[in-house]
């Protein structure tokens, strides 16, 4: 309370309202008591919206919910992909010391992550919508929480040294793409497992891609089509042509192993080691990578004996 009083005094509130420090301290205490009573409602935002005990305008209710569920990127980066369990919560002392975020704030953020996860993990339907409807968060914050839930469920490894340059926003973008394209909910939005679980049938089907690297004729044809399509269009053509087989093996082997839980967890590490680092070593631009992956996909679809049939 004393810290809050000091902050309010520095803002010039005493002069603004012509009041005393004692009155300011009493007012601050009232705010703290009110918050303690409303915090339990913030655990279930719909209850806050529907309660009549506290006269809080709708726009302030929305602000309270948004701020309560806001999180620090430095904190979420430390726990992303970890199991939201008591064991992880015990490590929050270390997280607090490492990030400079108060332990109390770390606990609030962790408890919020766990609360959202528990509510939506078994729900049918789109993950982002489930988060938004149950916790009344803004679209951006709901998407961020959906990413946190998704990573916690699949236990993706994000803490290794090689992944430290990646931000939470990078992982949140990846989560969005995976949810939209690789989950059970991407195929059927009313199945029991919804958007949290990767589609096991899809992951099993990815094993069929191995023909692109195990069949020499297929590998050579694929390389020829990719090189024909990219000649004169990317700055690293010679490097791509010389390293095509290694890049293709890296991509396909990552995809083919995703039926194993451990390989799912190591997905981002494998991408960095087998694809990103080789491209960085040859100084690929993002535009080069995008052009290569597009041509790589289109060329595979054009191969005789390997036709990718999109589900209708």
What features would you describe in this structure?
With 312 residues, the chain is an all-alpha fold. The chain folds into 3 domains: 2-42; 73-198, no CATH class; 203-302, no CATH class. Helix content is 70%, strand content 0%. It contains 20 helices and no strands. Residues 308-312 have low confidence and may be disordered.
Write the layout of secondary structure elements.
Elements: H1 2-10, H2 13-17, H3 21-42, H4 45-50, H5 58-68, H6 73-79, H7 86-90, H8 92-99, H9 103-120, H10 127-135, H11 139-154, H12 168-182, H13 184-187, H14 200-205, H15 211-214, H16 216-230, H17 237-256, H18 261-265, H19 267-281, H20 286-302
Helix pairs in contact: 1-3, 9-11, 10-11, 11-12, 16-17, 16-20, 17-19
Can you tell me the number of structural domains? 3
Oligomer: single chain
Low-confidence stretches: 308-312
State the distance separating the first and last CA atoms. Answer: 60 Å
Tell me the strand percentage band: under 5%
Radius of gyration: 25 Å
Number of helices: 20
| Arithmetic mean pLDDT | 91
Structural class: mainly alpha
- Which overall shape is indicated by the principal axes computed on the Cα atoms? elongated
Work out the number of β strands.
0
**What letter string, H or E per element, gives the SSE order?**
HHHHHHHHHHHHHHHHHHHH
Q: Which range best describes the helical content: under 10%, 10-25%, 25-40%, 40-55%, 55-70% or over 70%?
A: 55-70%
| Largest sheet report | none
Protein name: FIBP protein
GO molecular function: fibroblast growth factor binding
InterPro entries: FIBP (IPR008614)
GO biological process, one term: platelet aggregation
């Amino acid at each position: 309370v004393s810290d809050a009083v000091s902050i309010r005094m520095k803002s010039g509130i005493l002069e603004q309202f012509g009041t005393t420090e004692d009155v300011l301290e009493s007012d601050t205490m009232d705010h703290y008591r009110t918050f303690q009573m409303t915090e339990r409602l913030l655990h279930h935002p719909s209850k806050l919206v529907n309660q009549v005990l506290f006269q809080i305008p709708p726009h302030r209710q929305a602000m309270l919910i948004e701020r309560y569920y806001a999180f620090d990127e430095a904190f979420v980066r430390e726990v992303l992909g970890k199991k939201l369990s008591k064991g992880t919560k015990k490590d929050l002392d270390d997280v607090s010391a490492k990030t400079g975020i108060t332990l109390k704030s770390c606990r609030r953020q962790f408890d919020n992550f766990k609360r959202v996860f528990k509510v939506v993990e078994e729900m049918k339907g789109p993950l982002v919508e489930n988060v938004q409807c149950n916790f009344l968060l803004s679209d951006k914050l709901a998407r961020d929480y959906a990413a946190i839930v998704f990573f916690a469920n699949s236990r993706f490894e994000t803490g290794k040294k090689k992944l430290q340059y990646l931000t939470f926003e990078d992982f949140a973008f990846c989560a969005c793409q995976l949810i939209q394209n690789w989950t059970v909910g991407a195929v059927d939005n009313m199945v029991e497992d919804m958007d949290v679980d990767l589609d096991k049938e899809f992951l099993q089907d990815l094993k069929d891609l191995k023909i692109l690297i195990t069949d020499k004729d297929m590998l050579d044809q694929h390389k020829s089509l990719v090189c024909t399509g990219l000649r004169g269009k990317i700055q690293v053509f010679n490097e791509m042509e010389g390293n095509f087989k290694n890049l293709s093996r890296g991509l396909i082997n990552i995809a083919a192993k995703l039926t194993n839980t451990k390989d799912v967890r190591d997905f981002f590490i494998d991408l960095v080691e087998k694809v990103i680092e080789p491209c960085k070593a040859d100084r690929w631009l993002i535009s080069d990578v995008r052009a290569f992956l597009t041509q790589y996909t289109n060329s595979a679809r054009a191969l005789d004996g390997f036709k990718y049939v999109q589900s209708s």
